[in-house]
Amino acid sequence: MDIDSVWERLHKKSELNVGVGLECREWLGGVNKDGYGVLKVKINDQYKVVSAHRLAYWVFIGHCDTVGYDASHLCHNKKCIRIDHISMEPTHINQSRKHCSNEGRCFTHHGYLDCLFPCKSVFIIYTNMHY
Ligand SMILES: [Zn+2]
Ligand SMILES: [Zn+2]
To answer: pLDDT tens digit string along 4-31?
Structure first.
């Protein structure tokens, strides 16, 4: 797999979404049944469908061993492939983020990064523009 061409594909098929207040980089290509961005890449002469955010993280971090870890979205945006919105962590940490997503704020994750939510003041300014 050519890292540069993968990176280029990820970049070309995604765009910055500033509207949500977090500046997520959203995948514009196909999504799987769970709503995560996916793409087909050639690995060892075989085509495989991989998740876009996991691939983005893997390409960027390179040699990092991520087997057995979830690529968790700190921003709770399944289409986001922005590296600093993704955290490699054990499944139970990833699962615990669902609670934060449901409540709209982070309950902290003991040794792992906090979830990202739009800053309240930004949100107020943003909603005020509609009135
Ligand atoms: Zn994001
Ligand atoms: Zn959280």
So the answer is: 888 899 999 999 998 767 899 999 999 9
Phi and psi (nearest 5°) for 97?
Answer: -70, -20
Q: Which amino acid is at 28?
A: L
Residues around the ion ligand 1 (C-beta < 5 A): 24, 75, 77, 80, 82, 85
Question: What is the per-residue burial (b if ≥16 Cβ within 10 Å, else e) of 89-103?
Answer: beeebbebbeebeee
> Ligand 1 centroid to 46 CA: how many Å?
30
Q: What CATH fold (topology level) applies to the domain 3-127? A: Homing Intron 3 (I-Ppo) Encoded Endonuclease; Chain A (3.90.75)
Ligand 1 center to 79 CA (angstroms): 8
